[in-house]
Every structure is written in structure tokens, then in C-alpha cells.
Design brief:
single chain, little secondary structure, Jelly Rolls, four-stranded mixed beta sheet, elongated
Length: 369
């Protein structure tokens, strides 16, 4: 099926392949364009199907566009879907065909390669814009089949010192008083059994094979751009616990960091607690951070959390006349005194308790002052 060839300055003839118009309640006729089927029993591939705009004939003429557009809906009807699916594998051991959408290569000496864009349809009125979904294929029904990966990867540099292409994940810009769209990077949820949730990893690129520096990773809240708008916050948190499970820790600089630099002093949590109980088992529990303790009467006490290496608890006895008992948690020790034994804080004193390991607490100063 070929449009007519033009001469002179005339356009080439168009080719239109259209299904028949429907009756009152009938569906419109389908229009199908397929490559030829290979010979049965042979190894030859099926015929290719190519949809290409016409090449430009003049020196600076633009190539003809090639459009694949589904039918428009009428009234409240939906527009027709467009599906691009590679051919299925043979019945024995062939692999299914791949689907590739690639921008055209630059032909001139320093020409850029063509962009490849995947964009959801624009909304109208109060309608939402169409979503763009990039999803790896589902696994087979077997027990150990993995789902297909979804990869967003920038192009590799080919020249000697060329920089690799950037890979950006950017949410949509808000309009008027609307918020900008959120960007979420999340590992996949676990199966219904005992599987772990998928990890989400954000890592800078590996350095060159000789002396290249590894790529930096920057996480920054959005800048306020109008008037006195606030900058966006950055929140890093461990996963939420369920039931009797534990929330997970956040580790920074555990294995490879030479130092950790803060532009401002980090803030610690603060709380007020009331001393209670006259023994370890009934003393008020303390939390990590700063604890302002009221209610001291030279008998009641507070209790440190179970020791974990590096944990810090600051305790301030605000009573102006009464002492306060500070107990370790069960089977822990403070300043190498007997296990489960309290240390006495005088009135109006403060101390920092630091856990050395999973058993020993040390106070600074040695005697709270």
C-alpha cells in the first residue's frame, strides 16, 4: 500500500487505512496491518511491519511524521486505547520479541540524537492528566519466577572524556496555588508470605577505572521561589513497625564515611517525665534525648532504656531540694556498680548517660552535678 510519488514541488500522496463506520449500535470496523506469517515448520521469522513517515527529498526538508492514533470517543465514551506488543515466542523455545522506542541517531558530525518521550495525555477542564506507567512484566505462575525489571537509565558517554547522560525523575509543576507533584521512590511490597519488602537504593555512579571519583548523591528539599515562601523539608525515617515489631534504625556513615559534617547543630528530642516508684521495676521509663524529671522526693526514680551502644540519655533533676534515683534497665549497669543498681542524682543536677555496649552505661560527669 503506497501513496503516490510527487514530482516537482508537490506533496507525496497520503495513505489512509481506516476501519468501516459503524451502524447505530454496532462497533466501527477494525483496521489491521500485519506482517506476513512465516512458513509453517520452518525457522524463518514472520514478516516485519514498519510504519514510517516519508523521507524528506530536499536539502533541508523535514521528514514526514508517522502517527499512531487511536479513535476519538464520542459523548461520554472513552478514547480508543493504543497497544504496542511484541510478538509472542515460538511454541518450543523461542524468546518473545522486545519492544523498543528509540529516538533517531544524529547523522551530522555533531548532531544530537533524537529525544524519545513518553507523555501522558493532557487533561481538560478539571480532568487529571493521563498517567505514564513504566512497569516490568509480571513473573510466571511458578513459585520462583521473578517479575521483570523496570530500568530508567541515561545514555553512556562514547567519547574519551564525555559525561554520561543525566537521569531525572521529576514530578509535575503545580499551577496557581496547587502543589507540585510528589516524587516517590519505594521498594516493592513483599509477597503475602514471609518475604521482605524490596529495597530502594539511591547511589552515586562508580568512579572511573583509574582515578575517577565516585558520583555524589544530593538530597535537597525544593527551594521557595516566591515572596517569603519556605523551602521544602527533607525527611528521612525508618519503616513503620507493625504490631509488636520494631521500627528500623537509620544508619549514616557506618562503613565508608571519613566524617559527617552538619551545617547546623542537630536537634535532639526533649520530654518531661515524672519520677515514680521506689524500685527498678516501677520507676518511670526514660527516652533517648533530653529528659526533664519532676516529682523527685528522695525516693522515686526513673529508668534508662535497655542499653544499645552509642545511645545517649540526658537527665535533669529539677527538684531544688530532693534527690532522684536513676536505674539502669534490667541486667544493665551504670558506672560499673552492681547490676540493676541505681545511681543517686542530687537536687538540681544534670548528667549525660552514654551506653558503651548492650550492658554498660557511663555518666558524665561521674557524679551528676
Amino acid at each position: 500500500m503506497l501513496g503516490g510519488t510527487a514530482t516537482g514541488d508537490y506533496d507525496g500522496g497520503a495513505v489512509t487505512l481506516t476501519g468501516g463506520t459503524a451502524g447505530v449500535l454496532g462497533d466501527g470496523g477494525a483496521a489491521s496491518l500485519s506482517g506476513g506469517v512465516s512458513v509453517a515448520g520452518a525457522t524463518g521469522p514472520g514478516g516485519a511491519l514498519t510504519l514510517a513517515g516519508g523521507a524528506a527529498g530536499s536539502t533541508d526538508g523535514a521528514g514526514g511524521a508517522a502517527s499512531l492514533v487511536s479513535g476519538a470517543g464520542a459523548g461520554t465514551g472513552n478514547g480508543g486505547a493504543i497497544t504496542i506488543t511484541a510478538g509472542q515466542a515460538g511454541s518450543t523455545s523461542g524468546n518473545p520479541g522486545t519492544v523498543t522506542i528509540t529516538g533517531a541517531a544524529g547523522l551530522a558530525t555533531n548532531a544530537d540524537g533524537g529525544a524519545a518521550s513518553l507523555i501522558g495525555g493532557a487533561g481538560k477542564g478539571i480532568g487529571a492528566g493521563g498517567a505514564v506507567d513504566l512497569t516490568g512484566g509480571d513473573s510466571g505462575v511458578g513459585a520462583v519466577g521473578n517479575g521483570g525489571a523496570a530500568v530508567v537509565e541515561a545514555g553512556a558517554a562514547i567519547s574519551t572524556d564525555g559525561t554520561g547522560g543525566a537521569a531525572s525523575v521529576t514530578s509535575g509543576i503545580g499551577k496557581g496555588s496547587g502543589d507540585g507533584g510528589a516524587t516517590a521512590i519505594a521498594g516493592g511490597g513483599a509477597g503475602t508470605g514471609t518475604g521482605d519488602g524490596g529495597a530502594a537504593s539511591l547511589a552515586g555512579g562508580i568512579g572511573g577505572s583509574t582515578s575517577g571519583t565516585g558520583g555524589d548523591v544530593a538530597i535537597a528539599g525544593g527551594a521557595g521561589t516566591n515572596g517569603n515562601a519556605n523551602g521544602g523539608a527533607v525527611t528521612i525515617d525508618g519503616g513503620a513497625l507493625d504490631g509488636s515489631g520494631e521500627g528500623r534504625a537509620i544508619s549514616i556513615g557506618v562503613t565508608s564515611a571519613s566524617s559527617i559534617t552538619f551545617g547546623v547543630m542537630p536537634r535532639i528530642p526533649t520530654t518531661t517525665v515524672v519520677g515514680a516508684g521506689a524500685a527498678q521495676g516501677t520507676a518511670t521509663a526514660l527516652a533517648e534525648g533530653f529528659n526533664l524529671v519532676t516529682g523527685a522526693d528522695s525516693a522515686v526514680g526513673v529508668k534508662l532504656p535497655s542499653a544499645v551502644a552509642g545511645m545517649q540519655v540526658i537527665v535533669k533533676n529539677i527538684s531544688n531540694a530532693q534527690t532522684l534515683e536513676v536505674y539502669p534497665n534490667t541486667s544493665d549497669k551504670i558506672n560499673l556498680i552492681a547490676v540493676n543498681t541505681a545511681i543517686t542524682m542530687a537536687a538540681e543536677t544534670i548528667a549525660i548517660f552514654v551506653a558503651y555496649d548492650n550492658e554498660f552505661w557511663y555518666s558524665t560527669p561521674l557524679l551528676p552535678s
